[in-house]
Amino acid sequence: MQLEQINIQINNESIIHSIDLKINSGEIFVLMGPSGSGKTTLLKGIAGLLPFTSGKQTWENGTGTTGLVFQEPRLFPHLTVLENISFGLKVRGIPAKERKKAAREFLKNLQLDGLEKRYPHQLSGGQQQRVSLGRALILNPDLLLLDEPFASLDTTLRQDLIEWLYDLQRKLSFSILWVTHYLDEALSVADRIGIILEGRLQQIGTPSKIFQNPDSEKIAQFLSLPNRFSKEQWSNWFQGELNVLPTLNRGWIDPNHLQLFAGEYNQDEDIREEFTCMIPAIVTKVRPSREGYSISVLAGNQSLDVNTTGWKRVPTVKEKIRIRVPFAQIHWYSE
Amino acid sequence: MVKRIKSPGIITVFFVMLFSLFLLLPFVPLIIWSFTKYWPWPLLLPEKWSMDSWRYLFSASGRAGEGLFNSLIVAVLTLVGNMVLGIPAARVLAQNEFRGKMIVFSILLAPLFIPYTVSIMGMYDFAIRLDFINDYLSVAFAHLIITLPYFVATIWFQFRLIGAKYQEAAASLGASVSKIFFWIEWPLLLPAVLLGSFLVMVISFSQYLPTWIMSGGTMLTIPVVIFPFASSGNSSIVSAYSLLFFVPILVLMLVYFLLMRINSRKQFINRGEDIAIRTNKHSNQ
Amino acid sequence: MKKLSMCLAIFLLFLSGCSAGTKNNSQRVGENSLKSDWKEITASAKGSKVNFFMWGGDEGINRYIDEWVAPQLKDQYNIELKRYPMDAVEFINKLKTEKRANKKSGEMDVIWINGENFKTAKQEKLLLGPFTSKLPNFQQYVDTQSDDINYDFGFPTEGYEAPWGKVQFVFAYDSNKISNPPKSIDELQAWVKQNPGKFTYPAPPDFTGSAFIRHVLHEKSKDYNAYLSKYDEALLKGEADQVWNVLNEMKPSLWREGKSYPQSLSQLEQLYKNGEVWMTMGYDEANASNLIKTGEFPASTKTFVLDKGTLSNTHFLGIPYNAPNPDGAMTLINFLLSPSTQMKKMEIEYWGENMSLSVERLSDKDRDIVESIDRGSATISQEELSSHRIPEIGAEYVQWLERGWMENVANK
User: Fold this and answer.
1) Domain assignment of residue C11, yes or no
2) What is the DSSP letter of C65?
């Protein structure tokens, strides 16, 4: 499915600005963006619930269908599981017998066997959302639109369902446009990620590409990339010109790649061959994490995050320490 | 938690009893009055009982059957009008935003606030103009104006409660506007439609002046039959008629609860099973 | 949806079909009826329907119409009679509205009116016209020369309405408590002084209370007959003070020291039923008997008239200008004026009200029947009633007195 120059206005207010997007068949495309960025509006537009103010929507094979799953299950409360799942078939005028058969078979895929006569309020949250997915999927949509489908579920259940849906998608190979604001959700399923900010699609790319080379500080900020500083700041710390393309004027480094040293001096520092620098800093916050500790430090007036693994001695707050920064681990991007 | 649901507190029971007493109490003197002509104040019970009022009620003069029949026809016509006009109106008001929405809303609800006499004065003129229309229809029309606000408000509230999310879901599954209405909105609306219909019929049953004016006094509904006796202070006859008047309302109430039960049976069957499912849900997944 | 609207449309058509049947049955225009002779009128009334609009607050009267008159009319004239309960003020207003809107064919064929309502109706041309001379029973049995037929509260009837019945004002008392009831306003005044708190009257402009103060005027006036002719305010002004004096002197000994009055006759009757007052009154000589029968009044209740007489008035039947079935209306009215129908009306079983016919004009047989009719234990004899009758005075005087009472008695 392809979108060209899509604009959507609601009550004379422009929500979506000139969006171009192509979703390949069998692909999971994750759309990320802060709330109010227009994700839901775009989905409703693609699903045909909202009109495009301008722009073109085309399909590879001429026409295509979509299925939309909302954040809440939105199951019809007066219909059973079976009736909910077969609703789309009923709309299409498929006879009761056939659609019941089809729905019953589909229940297996949804791992909902035996629940066909239940009403929505008799199901758990995860079951409800599975019915909601099934209700859309039974129509074999060319493109499944997911609007933060698991956001209201608790973490473990969410992860289970993501896993389940991912497997189902690989099995049935439909394409998905998946809106979420969870990084882990995005990373675990996405073939490609798109970042939408203020109604504009900012960057499209593979997950690693997006993280390693965010197109702008705005995206980096949205992705909450840690230890983001300007090239001048890095230059100050390395005490010299840095060998980076002139257009890339900012850089970030993962807290795991920073090393922490206690005291004034340590022999190990000089032995390293890599290009590194040492930054003196004061510890401001110490939090335990799975791997070790997550430590915040203040270097001059800049705050950095450092993760330690297997460090024997826990630094204390206000302790004077030094941080070693390996130049090679800094990801450079442009503002 | 479960225990508390099963056995309501003493205070709840007390208030329910108090409330039912409060509702039933007025019926006691009505029943007594309908069986006596004379029940002076300090007497706890009348000294002389008589069936005269009931006999009159069911005599040729009583017009009880005619009154009930006419009341019912008018109420049903009024209800049909409410359904045809009220449901679309409530739908538009609940789901659409448009210029002047507040004005339309206030016009629709106006009969609730405008002093009765003002609308009655207008109605006289109206009655003459609508003279060519059948009395049942013109009376039902007046009742429609009076009942529509209640009906629209009830339906509007339910539409707001349902919101747009189910309709959106149905639309995303390809359902047309009419399919959305009949398959999704109507079933979800049903409790409010039943309540609204009950209100409409009861209000229609109790109208005197609009009935009188629109029909020129020829439409003998129950209130029109009762009124002369009420104005001449004939407590016994009025009591008998009032009790008769409660029969259709009682029947309506029964029908209402019956329909509500049938409607909710689907959705709220097996509460116990529901709890069992919830406790088992983790092992299910 | 389509099916539903189809059903609805058919239903509506069906309903309007029904209405066409009932509403277009006015055979002839009213004026033609007035020109026809009686034979034509009864012939054309055959098989028609007559709508009778009348006050409907009395079971006995309603039953008299529905259970006796209607079947008889059907039998004898093949006319269907339908009674609609409505207060006179209301149907007069309805007629006014219809006249203003120039509505040619209305719903009412016969209306039950008198006094103020008749005056309004006649002045505003809401009535069909003079028709009583056409009615054989009117010609034969009604005393066409008497004042109470030719005047309705001082307003000439001129054949626009036919007398249906007569009522006379009587006082009622509990004979267990009062052995010797007063026979004049003076005696009443004395009695009230001796028995404080045991008498009161409904506050005018209540119909009964208003009539009560006219009795005071009647007794105090030098020449009551002067009030029967043209309205003369000076006449009343000159004598009104005496009326106020009597009432004001009575006031401290009235129920609740005259600080408040019953607002209606039914309130006064309630006081009497409760035994709070020992006397009541009413513009209906058979009312006390009726109420004894239903058990509302104690069986020891008796009635009396004043020596100088009590007011009596006649109530009438009229035909509206836009009556859909004037022939049927006249046939009905003629039937209501027949001796047998009028005698039935006198029976306490139904109504117990006096006939509008002249007893002298009845056949000997009928006269015997009249005398043997049981009008109830509290009703005084026909002879005593008719020998103590005084006519009503004009509506202007009545209203002036009602206003004057508010100023000079109630608010003093």
Assistant:
1) no
2) I
| Spatial contact of B131 and B180, defined as CB atoms under 8 Å apart | no
Residue C306 lies in a domain: no
Q: Which of A69, A68, A53, A48 is nearest to A9 (CA)?
A: A53
Count: domains in chain C = 2
- Strands A28-32 and A54-58 come out as unpaired
Does C62 contact B80 at a Cβ distance shorter than 8 Å? no
Residue B276 has pLDDT above 50, yes or no: no
Contacts of A39 (CB under 8 A, 6+ apart): A31, A33, A147, A179, A196
**Are chains B and C touching, using the cut-off of 8 Å on CB pairs and a minimum of 3 such pairs?**
yes
Cα–Cα dist B235/C267, whole Å: 13
Asked whether C174 and C278 are in contact (CB, 8 A), the reply is yes
Size of interface A-B (CB pairs under 8 A): 76
- DSSP letter (8 states) at residue C227: G
pLDDT beyond 80 at A24: yes
Shared domain for C149 and C133, answered yes or no, is yes
B253 CA: distance to closest CA in chain C (Å): 25
Distance of CA B159 to the CA centre of its chain: 19
CB contact (8 A) between residue B274 and residue A78:
no
For residue A293, the cross-strand partners are A288, A308
Give the model's confidence band at C7: pLDDT under 50 very low, under 70 low, under 90 confident, else very high.
Answer: low
What phi, psi does C301 have (nearest 5°)? -70, 135
Contact B165/A48, CB-based, under 8 Å?
no
Dig out the tokens for A50 from the structure: 């909202």
Q: Who wins on pLDDT, B33 or C12?
A: B33
- Indicate which CATH number applies to the domain containing B215: 1.10.3720.10
Q: Confirm whether B52 is domain-assigned.
A: no
> What integer is the mean pLDDT of B127-136?
78
Condensed to tens digits (0 to 9), the pLDDT of residues B78-126 reads: 999 999 999 999 998 888 888 888 888 888 787 777 776 666 667 777 7
Q: Is residue B72, in this structure, part of any structural domain at all?
A: yes
Domain assignment of residue B100, given as a range: 67-221
User: How far apart are alpha carbons B110 and B150 in whole angstroms?
Assistant: 11
In a domain, A99, yes or no: yes
Which residue among A222, A251, A280 closes a domain? A222
Q: Give all chains having 3 or more CB-to-CB distances under 8 Å with chain B.
A: A, C
Indicate if ipTM > 0.90.
no
Q: Which domain does A129 fall in, by range?
A: 2-222
Contact with chain C for residue B39, Cβ under 8 A: no
CATH number of the domain where residue A316 is located:
2.40.50.140
B172–A68 CB contact, under 8 Å: yes
Q: Which residue is it, tokens 């009229």?
A: C318
**DSSP 8-state class, residue C254:** S
High-pLDDT (> 70) share of chain B, %: 87
Side by side, the strands of the sheet bearing A28-32 are: A66-69, A143-147, A175-180, A28-32, A192-197, A200-205
Determine the Cα–Cα distance for residues C316 and C153; give it in Å rounded to an integer: 12
* Alpha-carbon torsion angle C199, C202, C208, C212, nearest 10: 50
Residue C160 shares a structural domain with residue C174: no
Global confidence as pTM: 0.77
Task: Determine, for residues B59 and C67 on separate chains, whether the beta-carbon distance falls below 8 Å.
Answer: yes
Range of the domain at C235: 170-282+390-410
pLDDT tens-digit map of B25-73: 888 888 998 998 777 667 788 877 888 889 888 888 888 889 999 999 9
- Domain shared by A259 and A307, yes or no: yes
Measuring CA to CA, which residue among B226, B216, B200, B236 is closest to residue B53? B236
CATH number, domain of C32, equals: 3.40.190.10
**pLDDT tens string B158-193:** 999 888 889 999 999 989 999 999 999 999 998 899
Half-sphere exposure of C270 (CA within 13 A, CB side): 16
Total number of domains constituting chain B: 1
Residue corresponding to tokens 């017009």:
B63
